[in-house]
């Protein structure tokens, strides 16, 4: 328990101390909100979609959680290069507790980032459907964060350096984002695209988040939460295994 | 010192591709002994320590650490030792104090004892007044001293010190060795150290293994090594055993390429 706590605390401290990273990571969501929100808004409305900012806000929040979470998981590569990884590797504690501590820490950080972006969306004119759903929104954000931190950690356990990280960003993370329905509705898509969106775990995160924030969703909470929860557990198990096999 | 063997290494090898970094070595360390690996750069000292401490899997051979196999009984093996790495391994974004605290918790040192030792060790390594500074602002020597303090925070059965004195001033070196000797005699902690300073090995180690090109070329007390080589000091003995050519430590361009090409493959 103490192991999990101290590794969690480490991630939080590192996050709070890197103010430039926090602010830098806000630029992208803001850009999406302004450029897409105001740029595509009129088109979306004319096509009968309703208020695009309302549709887009949950997607952009999910996006910032996705990126922050993956990045937190990927920090293992950093730790490997700066040597700190060895310190945790030789410690007489279970690999699972290291994995859980790191993942909870990264997920907390990603959730905080998501909350900041949520507040930004309020300034851009977004209004959530009901205040009563905010705890559910919070939970959903944390689930998304947990899932992608776990995936990031698992991936980072098999990468040696940042060159691999670029590949992961371009061929996994960006596609996951664009295919998740964060930017466009999932109705009436071509078959192949529809299939891809369904195997994208972020799709279920975005859907659940939209359910809590604007009350409209493509699937339902039961399906969304089971997919998110299931893949999270799976990633944690695979991640601990891969982590336990790291050699430095 | 007792007759009980605490580290038992049999026919151990490690290859990195074509390169044989550790080449069929065998040795035993007794519980309570101070044992030194003495060898030039690139001899295979760190690689051996990494295999003993679960960080690398051997290509072949057998290891028993406190009776446990570091490949298949990792957690039991890990509970048996502490280590000061040759390369940096602190967290730059944390303070000196936080680095120590994190280590103490990972190694289950009870809070009161932990704080007490942290205070004492920070004084020994002269970082007492810098305890709340971020490690990223530390000089190389200060980082080194912090690593050493951290390594001594818990008292394991076996303590590994991989070139602990590199970059240390003579005073700190002296403090360190006195402290290590005290740990060894008072708490019967087995010490496994590597160095390429002869006088250190001579001064502190009960037995010395001279290692070169991945092979143990001689093993014994400092006296025995001198006798064997017909020399009067350990430095001459060392040169007689390893030759006098200078060794490069830096990775060559080919090594660097190899490291990059390993990106997607798991390390063997
Ligand atoms: N991960 C690695 N990949 C490839 N070669 C390595 C690796 N680690 C060490 N080596 C090589 O193995 C040899 C022994 O290195 P090392 O054990 O670090 O020597 P020492 O600690 O005695 O200076 C050196 O030639 C070094 O370049
Ligand atoms: Mg070395």
Record keyword descriptors for this entry:
heterodimer, A: 248 residues, mainly alpha, 0% strand, globular, B: 268 residues, alpha/beta, Rossmann fold, 2 domains, three-stranded antiparallel sheet, 10 helices, 23% strand, disordered C terminus, binds adenosine-5'-diphosphate, binds magnesium ion
Total domains of chain B, how many? 2
Number of helices of chain B: 10
As a percent range, the share of helical residues of chain B equals: 25-40%
Give the DSSP E fraction of chain B (strand runs of 2 or more residues).
15-25%
Mean pLDDT of chain B: 88
Order of helices and strands of chain B: EEEHEHEHHHEHEHEEHHH
- Number of individual domains of chain A: 1
Question: Which stretches of chain A are poorly predicted, pLDDT < 50 over at least 5 residues?
Answer: none
Succession of helices and strands of chain A: HHHHHHHHHH
Number of strands of chain A: 0
Here the CATH topology of the largest domain in chain B equals Rossmann fold
How are strands sequenced across the largest beta sheet of chain B? 5-6-7-3-8-9
Bound molecules: adenosine-5'-diphosphate, magnesium ion
Percent strand of chain A equals under 5%
N-to-C CA distance of chain A: 26 Å
Any idea what the radius of gyration of chain B is? 19 Å
């Amino acid at each position: 328990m103490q192991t999990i706590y101290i590794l969690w605390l480490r991630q939080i401290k590192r996050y709070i101390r890197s103010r430039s990273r926090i602010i830098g990571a806000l630029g992208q969501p803001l850009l999406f909100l302004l450029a897409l929100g105001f740029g595509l808004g009129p088109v979306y409305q004319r096509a009968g979609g309703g208020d695009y900012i309302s549709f887009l806000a949950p997607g952009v929040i999910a996006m910032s959680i996705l990126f922050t979470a993956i990045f937190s998981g990927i920090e293992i590569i950093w730790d490997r290069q700066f040597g700190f990884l060895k310190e945790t590797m030789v410690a007489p504690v279970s690999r699972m507790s290291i994995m859980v501590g790191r993942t909870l820490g990264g997920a907390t950080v990603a959730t905080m980032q998501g909350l900041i972006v949520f507040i930004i969306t309020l300034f851009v004119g977004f209004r959530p459907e009901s205040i009563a759903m905010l705890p559910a929104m919070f939970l959903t954000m944390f689930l998304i964060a947990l899932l992608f931190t776990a995936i990031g950690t698992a991936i980072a356990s098999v990468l040696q350096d940042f060159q691999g990280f670029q590949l992961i960003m371009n061929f996994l993370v960006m596609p996951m984002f664009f295919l998740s329905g964060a930017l466009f509705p999932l109705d009436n898509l071509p078959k192949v695209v529809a299939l891809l969106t369904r195997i994208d775990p972020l799709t279920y995160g975005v859907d659940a988040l939209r359910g809590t924030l604007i009350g409209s969703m493509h699937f339902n909470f039961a399906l969304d939460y089971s997919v998110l929860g299931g893949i999270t557990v799976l990633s944690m198990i695979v991640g601990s295994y891969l982590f336990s096999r790291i050699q430095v | 010192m007792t007759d009980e063997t605490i580290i038992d290494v049999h026919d151990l090898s490690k290859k990195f591709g074509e390169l044989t970094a550790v080449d069929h070595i065998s040795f035993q360390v007794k519980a309570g002994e101070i044992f030194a690996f003495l060898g030039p750069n690139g001899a295979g000292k760190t690689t051996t320590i990494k295999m003993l401490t679960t960080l690398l899997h051997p290509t072949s051979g057998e290891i028993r650490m406190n009776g446990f196999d570091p490949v298949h009984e990792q957690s039991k093996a890990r509970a048996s030792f502490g280590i000061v790495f040759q390369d940096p391994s602190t967290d730059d974004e944390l303070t000196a104090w936080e680095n120590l605290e994190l280590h103490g918790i990972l190694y289950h040192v009870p809070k009161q004892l932990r704080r007490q030792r942290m205070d004492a060790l920070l004084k020994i390594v002269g970082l007492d007044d810098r305890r709340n500074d971020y490690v990223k602002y530390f000089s190389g020597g200060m980082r080194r001293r912090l690593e050493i303090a951290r390594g001594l925070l818990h008292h394991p059965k076996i303590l590994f010190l991989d070139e602990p004195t590199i970059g240390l001033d003579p005073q700190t070196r002296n403090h360190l060795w006195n402290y290590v000797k005290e740990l060894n005699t008072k708490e019967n902690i087995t010490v496994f150290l590597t160095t390429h300073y002869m006088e250190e090995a001579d001064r502190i180690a009960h037995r010395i293994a001279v290692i070169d090109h991945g092979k143990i070329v001689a093993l014994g007390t400092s006296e025995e090594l001198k006798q064997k080589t017909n020399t009067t000091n350990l430095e001459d003995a060392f040169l007689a055993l390893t030759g006098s050519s200078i060794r490069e430590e830096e990775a060559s361009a080919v090594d660097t390429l190899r490291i990059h090409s390993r990106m997607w493959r798991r390390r063997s």
